[in-house]
User: What shape does this take?
Amino acid sequence: MGKVGGYNHLKQLGVGSTIAGQLFVAAIGGAVFGLLARRNPARLSAIWTMSILVVLPIVAFAIALWPVLGTSYVGLPIEAARLVTLVGFALCVFLFERTLVRVLNF
Assistant: This one.
């Protein structure tokens, strides 16, 4: 902790790195999606984009983070906290996918 300036700076570094990583992965996903969509726009369907950009990240998120999904800042029981976390993530990923498709179509 001494190398980064204490506990608060370490926490800021962790949160900032997580946000930067999410933006980086989203940018790569958007670029790949844009290249594939421009290559063959007739194949672009809502089912395809939903399965790749929504279902796949939700499944990967649930598998990778299952042990810590039960944590809650408001004191929810473990099972309820898992459900709330997964639903929140699903909404975020769904909004990202819809925004990406709408912007690309615009």
Observations:
- The first helix runs from residue 7 to 39.
